[in-house]
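Structure request: ATP-binding protein, Streptomyces tibetensis.
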Amino acid sequence: MHEYTSTARVWGLTCPGFPEEVSRARRWTRDILRGSPLADDAELIVSELSANAILHTASGGVGSFHLALAVSPKVVALSVTDEGGTGTAPKVERPSEDAVHGRGLGMVSVIAHRVVVHGSHSGYTVTAELFTDTQPGGHPC
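Returned structure:
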């Protein structure tokens, strides 16, 4: 293989910050990953990260959020970038049993093999990675 050739394929999509765009993000992810054993997990992760961007950041309403999906022979990486506007970075929370919110990023961190948060109050990118060839016991679920 040539040293500048990559086997990864990357797609991007920018969505307005409306709740109905979450279903568009899911459908887009499902269409790209059609036939992959990781498609269901990826769809769930994109749904959760997109909803978080709309509900908890300036992306909701008049803003937008951006999705990136990278597929290589070993990894499927899903990233959602929001428009920030919050004083804190996205993080896994431990909500009480009767809490209505706060479980989503925890769920993503259980499904994904790795979750990374980058950014600042002007915008965060949450990337979840799913490995394609895990060893037995290698997946956290």
